[in-house]
Design brief:
Helices cover 23% and strands 29% of the residues. By secondary structure, it is an alpha/beta fold. The strands form 10 sheets. An 8-stranded mixed sheet has the order 17-16-18-19-27-26-25-21, with helices on both faces. Strands 6-3-7-8-36 form a 5-stranded parallel sheet, sandwiched between helices. A 5-stranded mixed sheet has the order 28-35-34-30-31, with no helix packed on it.
């Protein structure tokens, strides 16, 4: 129990007045006994005892009456969260309104977002002219942060403008941010009201920041129903190489959030709004299911793709977007080692040899110019017989691979083992163990023993016999070869020789790949350059290295800050992002190692395709999708929601249950919760009752007399 007027309790000292008067009247005069009165003493004892009982009873009634009157003036309440100075205190109200996609769900009271607006209106009804108000949606359409103000009309306009959107922050995070912003107000009392549908997956995790002390948090739930839902939660482009007319492997993850098994569920793939693949599957409840597709692009460039499923009550996650890049050309840096002849490499990458496939725009430099090259401007780097590698060049090459570049190493017979090993170590690779055979010899020292035909690099390189279903692998004669010892980990032997060493080794480092060839592209090492295998193998290797992650493009989450690394643009170029509505924005950007880094912030909140442009040229296309967590519409129980929100925000959280989504009903319920149920009238009635009893006792009981 609390008191809305606690200072009135100071009058409780008046209870001592009747006690003081009673004790004062107990002072007795000195008595002298006469012998003639001795016989009446026994009669007086019983009379005196009755008088004392009456006096103590009257004293108790008077003291209780005074105490109840004081308590009535102190305005006692059974519950409430009001500050000790009373309810007439200036307050700063922050209304955190959940406008995530799940607020589009409807029940008998209408859409959840409409119910939330009505409940937020009820909060405004409890504010007076001196109070400050802050409206804080979990999805904001502007980067500027709202501030608390005393303009209730503006707050109502802000509430009416709130719509369900993608890109919502967790409810706990929004409560903390709003509570921090509320500290700008000078109001001594601060309250945060969180209005939402209690979606369990978006309540929030524990944060490093907490709600400031003395800030109260009240949860206002809306909605009553959890619809069944099936969502596309992820799309992956499995193939690392995409060409016109060649199949590309895709995978999509579907999740059935309902309670029933769905048989024969259909999912489709669209490229530039044309259906190119379809698949059916069985979806078990609450179990992610992977569905595979094979799609064949028919044109080049940055293609818009999406995986679409059957529509349900919650349609916002019935498709998921992705981008597929079918390039027109690749930028390749060929570093020619001293004394090396790269003519076979140049011939293999020339436009005459690759027909209508993508063209490689090659730049050839000597190894003495490697240190001055901007490696980030190239999709792949070929080291053709480099003899020496300085520590700076090793560091630059390792950083290039780590940031998504592709590197192909053809060895040199004059290679320095310590410098090659420094490069291998920098990319988490193996060791250089010398050479086998004789350069320019005529006896083959090894042949192909095992080829990893399932690797994407070999798609279409080796013919498969229709009769036996086995590939026909053409093995060259090898006269001289580098002995490379793999280190394990993120390495894979693509072609293994009969002597146990790799012929072609893949080393993954960071976001990029390095391929190590055991032979140089020279007839002195092997007859591979004059075999029919050389051109397709080199073409696919360079294509595989230069593809990187750009074949799939980026898939971003709406409203989540991220960075885009854009290569192939001048460092001083100003890049712009064009959204699905045609609006242009210029993000923050800075120049990095051979690339421009874009920082998108939280302004990409609308799902769709966003184009990155340098002037009028399209340099990247990214897909923005809603957070997969928003597809799980399961509601938390109010008690569980309170615990989760309290843990995330680091504050005590109260919940207002039972109030209908009506502004007046919510306002009345909040006033009752805030001030509590006053029971001053109960204490006033008790005081009157005690006074009436005192009067009755005093009037009915007569002074006692002793018989003569």
């Amino acid at each position: 129990m609390e008191f809305l007027n606690p200072f009135a309790l100071l009058a409780m000292a008046a209870v001592a007045v009747p006690l003081f008067l009673h004790l004062f009247n107990l002072r007795r005069p000195t008595t002298v006994d006469f012998s003639s009165l001795a016989f009446v003493k026994e009669l007086q004892k019983s009379a005196v005892q009755r008088v004392r009982i009456k006096e103590w009873l009257l004293l108790a009634l008077r003291m209780l009456a005074i105490a109840c009157l004081v308590l009535a003036f102190a305005r006692p309440t059974l519950t409430g969260d009001i500050a000790p100075v009373g309810d007439d205190v200036r307050t700063a109200h922050a209304i955190v309104i959940d406008n995530s996609l799940s607020m589009q769900v409807r029940d008998g009271e209408g859409a959840y977002i409409e119910q939330a607006r009505r409940k937020a209106e009820g909060v405004l009804e409890t504010a007076d002219d001196r109070d400050d108000i802050l409206v804080w949606p979990t999805v904001r359409t502007a980067e500027t942060l709202p501030s608390p103000s005393g303009d209730a009309a503006r707050a109502r306009q802000a509430l009416q403008a709130v719509e369900a959107r993608a890109g919502a922050s967790r409810l706990g995070h929004a409560v903390v941010r709003a509570a921090e912003r509320l500290q700008e107000s000078e109001a001594p009392r601060k309250v945060v009201y969180a209005v939402g549908d209690l979606q369990a997956s978006t309540l929030g995790d524990s944060l490093s920041r907490r709600v400031p002390d003395e800030t109260q948090v009240t949860l206002l739930p809306v909605g009553s129903r959890t619809p069944a839902n099936v969502a596309v939660t992820d799309v992956r482009v499995v193939s690392r190489i995409a060409e016109v007319g060649q199949p590309v492997q895709l995978e999509a993850t579907l999740v059935n959030y309902g309670s029933q098994t769905l048989n024969g569920f259909v999912a489709s793939v669209f490229l530039d709004d044309e259906r190119v693949a379809q698949s059916t599957t069985t979806l078990e409840p609450d179990t992610p299911t992977t569905v595979s597709f094979t799609a064949t692009p028919q044109e080049r460039g940055w293609l818009k793709g999406r995986v679409e499923i059957e529509q349900d009550d919650f349609s916002v996650d019935d498709d998921r977007r992705f981008t597929l890049h079918v390039p027109e050309e690749r930028r390749v840096l060929v570093v020619r080692g001293t004394g090396q002849d790269p003519r076979f490499v140049d011939l293999a990458l020339s436009s005459e040899m690759i027909d209508d496939r993508i063209a490689f725009r090659s730049t050839t430099v000597g190894e003495d110019r490697l240190a001055s090259q901007e490696l980030g401007a190239f999709d792949a780097v070929l080291l053709v017989g480099a003899r020496t590698l300085s520590s700076g060049e090793v560091s630059a090459l390792a950083r290039y691979v780590e940031q998504g570049g592709g590197l192909l190493l053809f060895p040199s017979a004059q290679a320095r083992p310590e410098e090659y090993n420094a490069l291998f170590t920098a990319v988490d690779g193996g060791r250089f163990r010398g050479f086998s055979g004789t350069q320019g010899g005529d006896r083959s020292i090894a042949s192909f023993d095992r080829v990893d035909l399932d690797h994407p690099l070999f798609e279409g390189v080796f013919d498969r016999s229709q009769q036996r279903g086995e590939p026909q692998v053409e093995s060259p004669d090898i006269f001289y070869a580098l002995n490379y010892q793999p280190a394990g980990g993120a390495e894979q032997t693509l072609i293994e020789l009969s002597n146990g060493f790799p012929f072609l080794q893949e080393v993954r480092h960071g976001g990029g790949v390095m391929l190590v060839s055991a032979v140089a592209p020279s007839p002195a090492w092997s007859d591979l350059p004059v075999r029919g295998l050389f051109i397709p193998l080199l073409y696919r290797s360079v294509y595989y290295l230069s593809a990187g992650a750009s074949v799939a493009g980026e898939q971003l989450t709406a409203g989540r800050p991220t960075e885009l690394r854009i290569t192939g643009v001048p460092p001083d170029a100003t890049l712009q992002i064009v959204g699905p509505d045609g609006g242009e924005r210029t993000p923050d950007q800075r120049t990095l190692f051979g690339a421009v880094l874009l920082e998108t912030g939280r302004d990409l909140t609308e799902p769709g395709f966003y184009d990155v442009r340098a002037d009028a040229s399209l340099v990247r296309r990214v897909a923005v999708n809603s957070d997969p967590a928003e597809s799980d519409l399961q509601r938390a129980e109010p008690s569980s929601a309170v615990e989760a929100l309290a843990e995330a925000a680091g504050a005590n959280v109260r919940v207002l249950e039972g109030a209908r989504p009506d502004a007046q009903a919510v306002a009345d319920a909040l006033r009752t919760q805030r001030a509590g149920t006053e029971i001053w009238n109960v204490f006033l009635m008790l005081a009157l009752g005690f006074l009436a009893a005192e009067m009755l006792v005093a009037s009915q009981w007569k002074p006692e007399t002793a018989a003569a």
